[in-house]
Amino acid sequence: MRIVACIDALGLRRRDRRNVAILAAVLIPVAAASSFAFDGATTGAPARIAPKNYANAEQALRAGLDDLNAGNAASCVDALTYAAEGGQPVAQWKLGEMYADGVGVSRDDGKAYHYFNKLVQDYDEDALDPRSRGAVANAFVAVGVYSLTGIPNSDVRPDPERARELFQYAASTFGNPDAQYNLAHMYLVGAGGLAKDRVVAVRWLMLASGKGHRPSEALLGHLLFTGEGAPAQRARGLMWLTMANNSAEGPKDDWIRELYRTDSAAASAQDRDLATAMLDERAKGPPPPSVISRTVVQALQFLRPLGIPVMAEAPTKPVAPAAPPSAQ
Questions:
Q1: N or C: less crowded end of the chain, CB within 10 Å?
Q2: CA distances from 207 to 179, 199, 203 (A)
Q3: What is the value of pTM for the model shown?
């Protein structure tokens, strides 16, 4: 997903443009209904297809998923498109993901946005099928990322405030850790109409880290280790960093490894010993309850440039992070 091409179109002051650019440049990109309004744009809407031999949209969904699971990504498109036209949320999500990543189809952010946004527009919290909950939550994150960055040469313009609303809703209503991570980064840089607030950012990161969200573990660990956004807790910060580093996967997590190496090198022997003891204690049983009460989370109404991927994924590959500063 192209990240920063349309930021100047916002007409923001230079400082605001810089914050949005920093936020966008370190996205964990697109993967991954309420009281606020949603944009009704249908940029990239695909052509309708003939029903072929499908008895209904549910049968088409099953056929498409069978092909996809068998590794036949290209052959599943017609079936999934028919299912998506019939209102199947999982089909809409899978097609959005495929178009965003260019899997089985040519990459097309406009079509990806169309399918993700359809899920957001059709969302009804009083009639949500539990089987579709994950797809809908991830669609909120995906549309949030596209809203933050915009789509070049389309009607989808950068709209950081809408991005913040979408992340806020997915973080609070669905408890989606990607959205919680994204929202934390918006608080860190002060984007989407938010004032910078590292304390609130740390709280969101703690919630996401409690769900095993690796980027949140890494960033939370770094902030605790350095004392940014919370009183310094070097051993506990190193514990979170170690957990993230131990589960890092592939080049996309190189920033986690680098952050761990940097902070670990600055840790004392006592810091490392205490972090090891904390890890051993966690291994004995479930982690202790979050210190963030439900009341505090409900009260939260809603990057610093760390060279860390900021936004959690819907589909697309992560943007390569810059080197961590003294420190999205």
A1: N
A2: 11, 13, 6
A3: 0.73
